[in-house]
Design brief:
CbiD-like, 5-stranded mixed β-sheet, 18 strands
């Protein structure tokens, strides 16, 4: 179980998938023994055995009910405290089978590209296997004579999904049941990184042959205004995860990639960074000074740009000289050159640049 005395900000938690597996195991034990336990040991996808508290346990003649409350640890997760609720029902006509169903608050998949059946529940492959493994382990004594129908529901799921990008991915009506290890690490980037890859996969199914990658909400709003003919699912907020977004675009067979950004992140891409987080690498202001020099900026301006720590400063100095559009266009061209070197002959590339108020400055080519 989690360390309750861990330093603030470091306490791990459990995924929706792990909590669902624990509730499913507890309910299955209830079917086998006639009583749902108040705590259950669950096998996680990473091989750990973890004890979970179980709520609302009850048994009927051929069914049982159990609920586990998700504790996300110190991760700021919108599904923290979700009630992962499972009803397990005996299927006398289907011995040996385990059927996994989505109930209220679990999203329904409505678009291809997620590796899940359209029309089915948004329960990802790893938690799906983990839930089934726990049900089979707990219910092995009954499997020769009956199967199990396992229905997962989340009473708060409809509200929680409004704080996610699920609707854009075609997951409607509730949250996804997620998790590759079962463990949630505080301030983990894994979930966001996975959502970026999923977003690109969905964009690859739309038939437009392109994906629009942006560094955040402001840049996405800007590019959406520039490309209003595209459906919302063609736009993916990649944040700092250029490498994963581009890798997913290669796998999806996309032929055009549009990148929307502001001067700071675009400079990092131009200098060859594939993870553009502020803590990973400093902005190469020397590169910006070289661009400024190529546009005729005075040596003292170029020196000031080189010695400053921010890309924004370079943009503001060039704006003051009336060279802002030319400067940002040249930067966008550098981004394309860098990406063409890394992904030769794989994409038509376009870069759109906006200012800090979301107004268009430049584009390339």
């Amino acid at each position: 179980m989690m360390k309750k005395d861990a330093p603030r900000g470091t306490r791990t938690g459990f995924t929706t998938g792990a909590c669902s597996a624990a509730a499913a195991r507890a309910a299955t034990i209830g079917l086998v023994t006639g009583q749902v336990p108040e705590a259950v040991e669950c096998l996680l996808p990473n091989g750990d055995l973890v004890m979970f508290a179980v709520q609302n346990g009850r048994c009927g003649q051929d069914s049982a009910h159990a609920m586990v409350i998700k504790d996300a640890g110190d991760d700021p997760d919108c599904t923290d405290k979700a009630h992962l609720t499972v009803d397990v029902r005996l299927l006398h006509e289907l011995p040996g089978q385990v059927l996994l169903m989505g109930g209220f608050g679990v999203g329904t998949v409505t678009m291809p590209g997620l590796g899940l059946a359209v029309g089915g529940p948004a329960i990802n492959p790893v938690p799906r296997r983990n839930i089934e493994a726990n049900v089979r382990a707990a219910g092995s004594s009954l499997l020769d004579e009956a199967g199990f129908e396992v229905t997962i529901s989340v009473p708060q799921g409809e509200e929680m999904t409004k704080k996610t990008l699920n609707a854009r991915l075609g997951i409607l009506g509730g949250i996804s049941i997620l998790g590759t290890t079962g463990i949630v690490k505080p301030y983990s980037t894994a979930a966001f990184r996975a959502s970026v890859v999923q977003g690109v996969q969905v964009a690859g199914t739309l038939g437009h042959g392109l994906v629009v990658l942006t560094t955040g909400g402001r840049t996405e709003k800007f590019v959406m205004q520039e490309m209003p003919h595209l459906p919302e699912a063609a736009f993916v907020q990649m944040g700092d995860f250029l490498r994963y977004a581009m890798g997913a675009a290669v796998k999806a067979g996309l032929k055009q990639v549009v990148i929307g950004g502001m001067v700071g992140k675009l400079t990092k891409i131009a200098q060859g960074e594939t993870i553009t987080h502020a803590g990973r690498a400093e902005v190469d202001t020397g590169l910006l000074a070289d661009i400024a020099a190529s546009l005729g900026a005075a040596p003292e301006v170029c020196d000031a740009i080189r010695q400053n720590e921010t890309a924004r400063y370079a943009g503001e100095r060039m704006d003051a000289l009336g060279l802002g559009t030319a400067f940002h266009t040249a930067l966008a061209q550098r981004v394309i050159q860098t990406l063409r070197t890394r992904y030769p002959d794989q994409f038509d590339l376009k870069v759109l640049v906006c200012d800090f108020d979301g107004r268009k400055i430049a584009e390339a080519p």
